[in-house]
Amino acid sequence: MSDLIRMTAAQLAELLARGDVSAVEVTQAHLDRIAAVDDRVHAFLHVDADGALEVARAIDARRAAGEELSPLAGVPVAVKDIFVTRGMPTTAASKILEGWRPPYDATVVERLRAAGMVVLGKTNLDEFAMGSSTEFSAYGPTRNPWDLSRIPGGSGGGSAAALAAYEAPLALGTDTGGSIRQPAAVTGTVGVKPTYGGVSRYGVIAFSSSLDTPGPCARTVEDTALLHAVIGGHDPRDSTSIPAPVPPVVEAARQGASGDLTGVRIGVITQFTGEGAEPGVMAVFRETIETLTKLGAEIIEVSCPHFEYALPAYYLIAPSECSSNLARYDGVRYGLRVGDDGTRSLEEVMSITRDAGFGPEVKRRIIIGTFALSSGYYDAYYGQAQKIRTLVTRDFTAAFEQVDALIAPTTPFVAFPLGSRTSDPYQMYLSDLYTIPVNLYGGPAISVPCGLSQGLPVGVQVMAPAMADDRVYRVGAALESAVGTLTPPEL
Ligand code: GLN
Fold first, then answer.
1. Residue 131 near ligand 1, beta carbon < 6 Å
2. Using CA atoms, how far apart are residues 107 and 282, in angstroms rounded to an integer?
3. 132 lines ligand 1 (CB under 6 A)
4. In angstroms, rounded to a whole number, what is the distance separating the alpha carbons of residues 266 and 454?
5. How many CB atoms lie under 10 A from the CB of residue 122?
6. What are residue 12's phi and psi, to 5 degrees?
7. Are 418 and 280 in contact (CB under 8 A)?
8. How far apart are CA 161 and CA 150, in angstroms?
9. Is residue 80 among the annotated active site residues?
10. pTM over 0.90
């Protein structure tokens, strides 16, 4: 196996800048790795070997010509298949988009290309990013490189598995209710949900527009920060984009790596320290609290009494927004059309197409969301959920008057066996118990690997006030410096 695939993006960037290695060599090493392991992992829905090598050759030529390139030029990246990519298939892991080739790039993809990064291909996910295991992909599940009989988390299981299997050093995800952090936790990788509005949603296939947040995934905290710096910042094409510069995330990650958290006040949430998580996960979480104390942080217990209502509120708000967003898949504008034999009405063709194109979880959410928004039920369901969202936000605001950051386990359980939760939606939704509150609020959060339980990775998340993304990197990097990175078994 080539050493190049084990390197971090920061290390690759340095070798590339010094000319010790070419972008073609780095890209080829990752393509070879994909060819060697992805039939077992299934992290990718589409690999663009030719396109990747072409970009790599162009970068090498520009470097040879003495051009000043951006820091990550020539470094490969995998893109969750919910970002539209010009000329490259984009399915959101749904049959309804099969065959669709978008005519444009998402803003974040445009920024990757402008930075000279090499897009390897598109990674697997739960259909339209609805799920926590990647089992709801219409194209078959991704497997966890730590144990191929287990799930890699979701919805961004493909991106997380690609990192853990050394198929890519960097990847893009989206976090609506935990889809970057939960896969990171169960694969022993790092994932960041930036502040809502801090990274553009333009060209991200919409699931729940008030929550969808693109973000970076990698094997180290510094690497996530480097990618964040490339994709973040204001985008006039996204009406909810914040007109402010990216917080100093790279500097914060490097500062945190010194392992000094003297004077940093970190809150432990009373409601998230009791039952609800596996004992092995709670054991790692308690050790992490001790580690933070050793690093100089002050630990303060804070009460967030409405956090326990966040999960049910999310499972009304997200389906409501999805029922509206997914109305556009009508068999006319994109991808699939079924039953258009000249005898049927437009309405019948739409109905047959949607029935054939959407999977069971997506249908479940459209039905719940349509119901929650319907007249007579709107106030009782959607309206109530919005009120809970306000109360959860107030809990965060009050907590951040006492502490600089909050910590919690990322997810209540380690990677579970494939098939063990698909027939019970509630059991699946419980994966998001700890990740959802910060989505309702909109602040940043990082998941960092902090130990093992049953031989499988456990993640701890750090949350901070909106636009204080640098803070989660500082604390995350300090934890990483104390814990080290987790290495999965050989594939
Ligand atoms: N697991 C959550 C859900 O199913 C979160 C998904 C996400 O963040 N995209 O909705």
1. yes
2. 39
3. yes
4. 28
5. 27
6. -60, -40
7. no
8. 11
9. yes
10. yes
